[in-house]
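Bit of a strange request maybe. I'm writing a small parser for C-alpha coordinate strings and I need a real example to test against, not something I typed by hand. Could someone generate the C-alpha coordinates for this chain?
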Amino acid sequence: MTEWLLPFLCGLGASVLSAWGVGGGTLLLLVMTLLLGVDQRTAQGINLLFFLPAAASALLCHRKNGYLDRSTLRSAIPPAAAFALLGAWIATAVDADVLRRPFGIYLLLAGVSLLWPQEKRKA
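Reply from user aminoacidic:
Good idea to test on real output. This should exercise your parser:
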Protein backbone atom coordinates (compact mmCIF):
# COMPACT_ATOMS: atom_id res chain seq x y z
CA MET A 1 0.00 0.00 0.00
CA THR A 2 1.44 3.35 -0.91
CA GLU A 3 2.21 5.85 1.82
CA TRP A 4 -0.65 8.22 0.91
CA LEU A 5 -3.43 5.66 0.33
CA LEU A 6 -4.34 4.89 3.96
CA PRO A 7 -4.57 8.57 5.01
CA PHE A 8 -6.57 9.32 1.84
CA LEU A 9 -9.06 6.51 2.49
CA CYS A 10 -9.38 7.50 6.15
CA GLY A 11 -10.02 11.11 5.16
CA LEU A 12 -12.68 9.96 2.73
CA GLY A 13 -14.35 7.72 5.31
CA ALA A 14 -14.16 10.35 8.02
CA SER A 15 -15.69 12.93 5.67
CA VAL A 16 -18.66 10.69 4.97
CA LEU A 17 -19.13 9.91 8.66
CA SER A 18 -18.85 13.60 9.55
CA ALA A 19 -21.50 14.48 6.99
CA TRP A 20 -23.77 11.92 8.65
CA GLY A 21 -23.09 13.57 11.99
CA VAL A 22 -21.62 10.48 13.62
CA GLY A 23 -18.10 11.66 14.37
CA GLY A 24 -15.78 10.91 11.51
CA GLY A 25 -12.97 12.28 13.64
CA THR A 26 -13.16 9.15 15.76
CA LEU A 27 -12.04 7.14 12.75
CA LEU A 28 -9.21 9.59 12.11
CA LEU A 29 -8.04 9.47 15.73
CA LEU A 30 -8.00 5.68 15.75
CA VAL A 31 -6.10 5.39 12.49
CA MET A 32 -3.60 8.09 13.39
CA THR A 33 -2.86 6.76 16.88
CA LEU A 34 -3.11 3.01 16.34
CA LEU A 35 -1.95 2.53 12.75
CA LEU A 36 0.24 5.53 12.00
CA GLY A 37 1.80 5.97 15.46
CA VAL A 38 0.82 9.63 15.84
CA ASP A 39 0.81 11.02 19.41
CA GLN A 40 -2.72 11.38 20.87
CA ARG A 41 -2.50 15.18 21.23
CA THR A 42 -1.08 15.66 17.74
CA ALA A 43 -3.86 13.46 16.34
CA GLN A 44 -6.44 15.57 18.18
CA GLY A 45 -5.01 18.76 16.66
CA ILE A 46 -5.04 17.29 13.15
CA ASN A 47 -8.58 16.07 13.77
CA LEU A 48 -9.72 19.55 14.75
CA LEU A 49 -8.30 21.01 11.54
CA PHE A 50 -10.00 18.26 9.54
CA PHE A 51 -13.28 18.91 11.30
CA LEU A 52 -13.64 22.53 10.19
CA PRO A 53 -14.22 22.06 6.43
CA ALA A 54 -16.04 18.75 6.95
CA ALA A 55 -18.48 20.29 9.43
CA ALA A 56 -18.95 23.46 7.37
CA SER A 57 -19.91 21.56 4.23
CA ALA A 58 -22.21 19.18 6.12
CA LEU A 59 -23.80 22.14 7.93
CA LEU A 60 -24.58 23.83 4.62
CA CYS A 61 -26.25 20.67 3.30
CA HIS A 62 -28.32 20.20 6.45
CA ARG A 63 -29.34 23.86 6.39
CA LYS A 64 -30.36 23.60 2.73
CA ASN A 65 -32.57 20.61 3.57
CA GLY A 66 -34.16 22.30 6.61
CA TYR A 67 -32.58 20.11 9.29
CA LEU A 68 -31.25 22.86 11.55
CA ASP A 69 -33.16 24.04 14.59
CA ARG A 70 -31.84 27.56 15.08
CA SER A 71 -33.17 27.95 18.63
CA THR A 72 -31.31 24.82 19.68
CA LEU A 73 -28.17 26.11 17.99
CA ARG A 74 -28.41 29.46 19.78
CA SER A 75 -28.70 27.77 23.16
CA ALA A 76 -26.09 25.07 22.49
CA ILE A 77 -23.25 27.09 20.98
CA PRO A 78 -22.19 29.17 24.05
CA PRO A 79 -21.77 26.21 26.44
CA ALA A 80 -20.24 24.10 23.67
CA ALA A 81 -17.62 26.77 23.03
CA ALA A 82 -16.85 27.11 26.75
CA PHE A 83 -16.52 23.37 27.29
CA ALA A 84 -14.43 23.00 24.12
CA LEU A 85 -11.96 25.47 25.61
CA LEU A 86 -11.96 23.54 28.88
CA GLY A 87 -11.46 20.25 27.04
CA ALA A 88 -8.60 21.69 25.01
CA TRP A 89 -6.93 22.95 28.17
CA ILE A 90 -7.29 19.55 29.83
CA ALA A 91 -5.99 17.76 26.72
CA THR A 92 -2.84 19.86 26.71
CA ALA A 93 -2.30 19.59 30.47
CA VAL A 94 -2.71 15.81 30.80
CA ASP A 95 -0.30 13.09 29.70
CA ALA A 96 -1.23 11.66 26.28
CA ASP A 97 -1.49 8.11 27.66
CA VAL A 98 -4.04 9.29 30.22
CA LEU A 99 -6.18 10.71 27.39
CA ARG A 100 -6.48 7.31 25.76
CA ARG A 101 -8.47 5.75 28.60
CA PRO A 102 -11.46 8.14 28.60
CA PHE A 103 -11.40 8.10 24.80
CA GLY A 104 -11.54 4.30 24.84
CA ILE A 105 -14.43 4.36 27.32
CA TYR A 106 -16.25 6.86 25.10
CA LEU A 107 -15.78 4.61 22.06
CA LEU A 108 -17.02 1.59 23.99
CA LEU A 109 -20.14 3.39 25.22
CA ALA A 110 -20.83 4.87 21.78
CA GLY A 111 -20.54 1.45 20.17
CA VAL A 112 -22.80 -0.24 22.73
CA SER A 113 -25.42 2.50 22.36
CA LEU A 114 -25.67 1.72 18.64
CA LEU A 115 -26.75 -1.84 19.40
CA TRP A 116 -30.18 -0.73 20.64
CA PRO A 117 -32.78 0.89 18.38
CA GLN A 118 -33.47 4.57 18.94
CA GLU A 119 -36.89 6.17 19.13
CA LYS A 120 -37.71 8.02 15.96
CA ARG A 121 -38.27 11.72 16.57
CA LYS A 122 -39.78 14.37 14.41
CA ALA A 123 -37.19 16.66 12.88
